[in-house]
Design brief:
Chain lengths: ~425, ~290
């Protein structure tokens, strides 16, 4: 009986070859990446002048995109570390999904920063001439650390699955070589399990402060600059709460897609959606609370120097986007997900999409309107410098990075089980014994 | 049939004509003004401002092009051409052949015209300026500092005192003038004064630029007299860049910022290396077990 269940789990959770939709999806992602790369070559050749960034909006969608990637990567620490440490039983099918989202996002967060550089050939100067006084240096340090830890956090729990893949999966030569290279040495001995358990525990504890600091430091890139909308002592908590929200939204979207495409209804159940829905409500309310603090308090005072920025969001050029993000990205998900019917998979997927898309535009609203409302007016510039709308190169590169992150997740899912097989078997065994 | 065709043609003509009329009506009302500006004995500058009517108010009109003439709109009288900036402002210096003869030519007449475009019609203005100057005297008796200004105008080749004219005293700052005392009016010998009581930062030696000015006067334009004097508080040179500060170069990083983050970085990366070591150990144990 036990072996039958185990075999069934192994069979269900094995990586699957792309079907037609998978091939189309991957091809689209590759095309988007290639277009983005072509646009980047154009930017390298002609300089940042190909972007719409000028004296006023010196940070555009590249930095918004960077902040978005950093934010969504925080989900790794939420689902894997926090849930693991607090012994949340239902977390197992979601841990690898969240960890690969974290790894893919943090890789492209690093690339988004390089894309924003006028002279990327001098990237190594950051390390060679590092100034610890600069918040940008702190960001480089925490991103590198978080990426390394996230990769390790993905790898250690993957170890017990690799021998299962070697034994049961009939893949290509490359796939088999990869599995053997990564985990043929895992025998599941007591010593190995002890070391792996210790490693996962260390990472679970370490990754929480590192994850908090990665997004806090990113918020400090803004908050240490004296500008309307950024000059806030709340920025760290505001960014972290927003990051947890978008991360959880991202996991919900991924859960739905993997469940549907790989027919994982037995493993990612409606109960998982229900739990994640409740978490989303809590995180959306928390982020809404910080938004009220960030906008309502300055709006109440309406300092002359900050009026232009606030009014551009409330009633000006960015008002439609601003209110859409607040409503669709926060308030609507809270209302819908408060009801049990709202926490069904399809509704959850739609709300997850609202949260993720809203979060991307929220980052744009944090970056650009502030830059277009400087405290001191900039003289002697063409009128067009007072506005910012990204050029096709900026859109292509940004979409290319988003596609790149999705491509990493897609390739990972193609090669490795998206739900930990060994852990699922262990849990099934425990249940079996209890019965 | 014929009648309806005629009706259609007539309607089209009416429609086109009304469009034309509407297009003509869409032209905005604009305003152009010139202010003659001179500081001490420096060459005068003409400040041109263009505005456009938006609702009931006139707002700055950028990008308006036009010409400025001295005395008459002839080729000889042409001083230069201008295009106003985003704030609707353009500055024109007088050519040397005119600037050096101003005293003999006073009163001076300047004409400015904004060229017509599809959005507005041509607009002209002219001013007549009498040459004037402000003689500024700064005194300090028993720690009482005083600014005394005398306004003189050039009439019939002679500098004569100008009574009953408003004059403002100020300290020149980076973006605008900081007022000193209330606006004063010149007495019958063209003099006005104010006590200097303010405390304001100056340069390293305490130098500040103080002045008196007649602002946008319809007879004299904007005339100022300025002087540099050590009435400011000396600013201490900020040499902290060479100390260990947050804004110093990397070799001047504060010790606390070197120690604490590096301790944290070393600790965290120590654990990461330990994790890598664990992978190596797991591998070794696995290979050893396979061989056994």
């Amino acid at each position: 009986m036990k072996t039958e269940i185990d075999n069934q789990i192994v069979q269900d959770l094995m990586p699957q070859k792309f079907g037609r939709p998978g091939v189309i999806w991957t091809t689209i992602l590759i095309i988007l990446c290639v277009i983005g790369f072509g646009a980047y070559i154009s930017q390298l050749r002609n300089g940042l002048v190909v972007t719409a960034m000028r004296d006023y909006a010196s940070w555009g969608i590249y930095i918004s995109n960077f902040v978005f990637f950093v934010a969504i990567s925080l989900v790794g620490s939420l689902i894997t570390a926090i849930f693991r440490l607090t012994n949340v039983q239902w977390r197992t099918p979601l841990t690898r999904i969240s960890e690969i989202i974290a790894v893919a996002a943090i890789i492209f967060a690093s690339l988004a920063i390089i894309v924003d550089m006028g002279r990327p050939d001098r990237f190594y100067h950051l390390f060679l001439f590092a100034r610890l006084q600069s918040p940008i240096m702190w960001d480089v340090i925490v991103i590198t650390t978080y990426l390394t830890l996230s990769v390790l956090f993905l790898y250690f729990p993957l170890l017990p699955d690799l021998p299962i893949l070697i034994k049961n999966y009939k893949g290509s030569k490359f796939e088999m070589w990869l599995y053997k290279f990564l985990g043929s040495f895992w025998k599941g001995t007591a010593a190995q399990r002890l070391m792996s358990h210790r490693a996962v525990k260390i990472i679970s504890i370490m990754i929480i402060p590192i994850a908090l600091s990665i997004h806090t430091v990113t918020s400090w890139l803004f908050a240490t600059t004296y500008r309307p909308g950024w000059d806030s002592t709340n920025f760290g908590a505001y960014f972290v709460s927003g990051a947890f929200l978008v991360g959880a939204g991202g996991v919900v979207v991924a859960m739905f897609v993997f469940r549907k495409y790989y027919k994982l209804e037995k493993y990612i159940t409606e109960k998982h959606f229900d739990h994640m829905g409740k978490i989303l409500v809590m995180l959306a309310l928390l982020y809404l609370y910080f938004n009220v603090n960030e906008y309502l308090v300055p709006a109440f005072k309406m300092k002359k120097a900050e009026e232009h920025h606030l009014m551009s969001l409330f009633t000006g050029n960015y008002s439609l986007l601003f209110w859409s993000v607040i409503l669709l990205g926060m308030i609507v998900p809270v209302i819908v997900l408060l009801f049990p019917k709202g926490r069904k998979p399809t509704t959850m997927f739609i709300m997850g999409m609202f949260v993720v898309v809203g979060a991307w535009f929220k980052r744009f609203l944090i970056v650009t309107p502030t830059l277009l409302s400087p405290f001191l007016p900039i003289y002697d510039v063409p009128e067009s410098y007072g506005k910012y709308f990204p050029t096709w190169e900026e859109w292509a590169i940004t979409i290319g990075t988003l596609a790149g992150a999705l491509l990493i997740i897609t390739i990972f899912v193609r090669l490795f089980p998206i739900i930990p097989i060994h852990e699922t078997i262990e849990e099934a065994d425990v249940k079996h014994k209890m019965i | 049939m014929k009648r309806s065709r005629f009706f259609l043609i007539a309607l089209s003509i009416l429609w086109i004509a009304s469009l034309q009329l509407l297009a003509q009506e869409e032209k905005s009302a604009i305003k152009v003004s010139i202010v003659y500006t001179q500081v001490n004995d420096q060459p005068p500058i003409l400040k041109l401002t263009t505005k456009v009517k938006a609702g009931k108010k006139f707002t700055p009109l950028g990008g308006a092009e036009g010409s400025v003439w001295y005395n008459e709109e002839t080729k000889e009288g042409l001083i230069g051409q201008f295009k106003t900036d985003k704030q609707g402002l353009a500055l024109i210096s007088l050519p040397p052949q005119l600037a050096t003869r101003l005293d003999s030519l006073s009163p001076l007449k300047f004409i400015a015209a904004v060229s017509a475009t599809a959005k507005w019609d041509e607009e002209k203005t002219e001013i007549e300026v009498t040459r004037a100057k402000i003689e500024l005297a700064l005194t300090e008796v028993d720690s009482v500092r005083k600014m005394e200004a005398k306004v003189l105008a050039l009439k019939d080749g002679k500098w004569i005192e100008v009574p009953d004219t408003e004059i403002k005293f100020f300290v020149k700052r980076l973006f605008s003038d900081f007022p000193v005392g209330e606006t004063a009016t010149t007495d019958n010998v063209g003099a006005a004064s104010t006590e200097y009581k303010i405390v304001i930062p100056g340069d390293l030696e305490g130098n500040i630029i103080v002045g008196a000015k007649i602002d946008d006067n319809e007879t004299y334009g904007t005339i100022s007299g300025m002087k540099t004097i050590k009435w400011g508080t000396p600013t201490e040179a900020d040499n902290s860049f060479y100390d260990r500060t947050l804004w110093a170069a990397r070799d001047k990083t504060p010790y606390w910022l070197l120690i604490f983050p590096n301790v944290i970085i070393a600790t965290v990366w120590g654990f990461i290396f330990y994790l890598v070591y664990l992978i190596i150990r797991i591998r070794k144990v696995g290979i050893h077990d396979s061989n056994v």
